[in-house]
Design a protein that fits this description.
Elements: H1 2-25, H2 27-36, H3 42-62, H4 66-84, H5 93-118
Helix pairs in contact: 1-3, 2-3, 3-4, 4-5
Length: 129
């Protein structure tokens, strides 16, 4: 079971680590998208959210301060998801479907992060223990 938990941590944390790094390597493109969604100070918002999920993802992978890492991811998902994936406001059916898929994906990731934040499980094979 420890191996499964480690694999899950690596997959979940890796998703956020890679996504966060893309906030910096694709800053211009992501800034344009955030601006189209009327996000104030879109470049700063992309950089700030990138920092949240890079730190959160690395924390989950390493098991170093994992509840803080999970909290960073929860803050990111709760603040970003309704603004960036507001499918209920999109008229085009294909675009609405894409936004709904991303919204639902983020809700599933939020659920996983809340489970980790709850401290229900120990953190085997972690640097922090």
């Amino acid at each position: 079971m420890n191996g499964l938990f480690l694999a899950g941590r690596i997959l979940l944390g890796g998703f956020f680590l890679i996504s966060g790094l893309k906030h910096f390597t694709q800053l211009k493109m992501m800034t344009g998208y955030a601006a189209s969604k009327k996000v104030p100070a879109p470049a700063a918002a992309i950089a700030g959210s990138g920092i949240l999920i890079v730190l959160g993802g690395a924390s989950l992978i390493l098991g170093l301060w994992p509840q803080i890492g999970a909290l960073l991811i929860v803050v990111f998902l709760v603040s970003v998801t309704p603004a960036m994936h507001n499918f209920w406001t999109v008229a085009d059916p294909q675009q609405r479907m894409g936004e709904m898929i991303n919204f639902m994906k983020n809700m599933a990731l939020l659920g996983a992060s809340l489970i980790l934040l709850s401290g229900v499980c120990g953190w085997p094979l972690s640097l922090g223990h």
